[in-house]
Prior knowledge:
Blueprint: H1 18-39, H2 47-73, H3 80-96, H4 101-123, H5 129-148, H6 150-153, E1 159-160, H7 171-193, H8 196-206, H9 208-213, H10 218-244, E2 246-247, H11 254-267, H12 274-287, H13 296-310, H14 314-328, H15 348-360
Antiparallel strand pairs: 1-2
Amino acid sequence: xxxxxxxxxxxxxxxxxxxxxxxxxxxxxxxxxxxxxxxxxxxxxxxxxxxxxxxxxxxxxxxxxxxxxxxxxxxxxxxxxxxxxxxxxxxxxxxxxxxxxxxxxxxxxxxxxxxxxxxxxxxxxxxxxxxxxxxxxxxxxxxxxxxxxxxxxxxxxxxxxxxxxxxxxxxxxxxxxxxxxxxxxxxxxxxxxxxxxxxxxxxxxxxxxxxxxxxxxxxxxxxxxxxxxxxxxxxxxxxxxxxxxxxxxxxxxxxxxxxxxxxxxxxxxxxxxxxxxxxxxxxxxxxxxxxxxxxxxxxxxxxxxxxxxxxxxxxxxxxxxxxxxxxxxxxxxxxxxxxxxxxxxxxxxxxxxxxxxxxxx
Length: 361
């Protein structure tokens, strides 16, 4: 038997591992973004800018609910605007009856859970285009009920004068409430997505038949995911009606749900900050650019086309892919820097390398 000589080589790594380094960089960037958001009212910006940022954060929270359902479960919903509108109408009706803001929250969450349950029960055994059509149909049903039940919803005129709690009456205090809600709900969705439940949900997304053969209740996972997503959408609807003090049937329109999908696609499906980036683009175009350009939907359509053509993973997703590609293929090192110098002939290390080459051959 020939004795095999195995060469062992100790590789020293300076600093923390690459994965940990990437996580640290992400946490630092998120922390800097959060500090900037907290300091925004103290940076001398106008009240309109703070209120506009609140609008972006509310839209991002609602888009995050769609992003969770589409990214983790592969279920694209065209009816989430209806869930948010149901919560807004619940708060509006309670305000019209003279209830305090606490009861507004109770009615809003109660309607949110009921409508989400209806959505989930009707769509949990469907997938693909059929899931899309079921959510669209239920969303249109809520839109129609908002018109027909005029004694409750106010019909076409909607419900106005909805007051939020007195302690958040000022625009800057309400901004901090919206910011805190966005951070907490986004973190909660991230935790759920990285939990065993999220892993099972991604398994359902990739292959329902395989998960079913392994004993998983696919319908139950879909229903649970829709309830989680719907609850986040309802909370966003409550914040929205407190922000605008008004709700009308247009809040449940299909165009609102389409805008949510556009936000998710622009930012990147399944990314953490994709909904925030997409919401910022859509809200700024719809609110700011529309003051200067009458054809602002055309501008938004052009932005959407450019993202689809050149950044199919969305702005956040494509940026992450670009950074990972640059990290995997760094610039080539100059000659002489690629490794240790060769050992001189006749040394023990030279014999070891020669024996290893012969053994491998």
